[in-house]
Amino acid sequence: MKRYNLLIVLLLLIFNITTAQKKDSPAADFSAIKEAKTKIENTVPLVIGHLQAISTKEGDNNILTNGKTALGKEYGILESEWRLYRGNMVNCILNNSSKKSKKCMEYHTQYLRNTLINYKNYITYLTKKNGYLGVEGDTKIDFNPSEITTKLSEAYFNASDAAKRMKGMQRKEFLEQTNSEDYKLKPYAQAAQ
């Protein structure tokens, strides 16, 4: 009888370890957060390059200077929301039941999506053909708010599922890694160089 109990415990342990290590399992990683961070940061040099082209074409350096200032303001709004989003998502998972956690995460994801859409609208206006003073051709920017937030949402829902299998401090440490410096947006001055 004891052998069967030991066998069941051993099988459950193996199942839990292999489930946590599967590539698509909830415990996989937070690569979607790093990918979103990179996409956001990559918009800055593209928009500045476009503003530089307009400034050169028009022979007016104020276009570049004023455009960079305005872009910095919009990026700052997004940077602030990005920091809040990551913290709020962790709090949703740690401080709520499963049902409340899901609603909380959906709410914060929708708020981030709206902020990303506003940012995209702004940079699209600056870079589209015949937009602000217009230049020939469009500047292509790989920035889709719906795609970004869908991937982020999936990453946090997976993290929530993985956190349910953890205890105490292990759970908190696992989730808190999303608030590390690695996932923080570069300051605008640094991204603009």
Structural overview:
With 193 residues, the protein is an all-alpha fold. The chain has seven helices and no strands. The chain has helices spanning 2-21, 31-58, 61-95, 98-127, 145-164, 168-176, 188-191. The model is unreliable at 17-28 (pLDDT under 50).
Concise account of the structure shown:
By secondary structure, the chain is mainly α. It has helices spanning 2-21, 31-58, 61-95, 98-127, 145-164, 168-176, 188-191.
Task: Describe the secondary-structure layout.
Layout: H1 2-21, H2 31-58, H3 61-95, H4 98-127, H5 145-164, H6 168-176, H7 188-191
Radius of gyration over all CA atoms, rounded: 22 Å
Structural class of the secondary structure composition? mainly alpha
Bin the helical content: over 70%
In N-to-C order, the SSE pattern is HHHHHHH
Number of strands: 0
Q: Taking all residues together, what is the mean pLDDT?
A: 82
The major beta sheet can be summarized as: none
Silhouette: elongated
Structure annotation, total helices: 7
Could you list the spans in which at least 5 consecutive residues all have pLDDT below 50? 17-28
Distance between the termini: 69 Å
| Strand residue content | under 5%
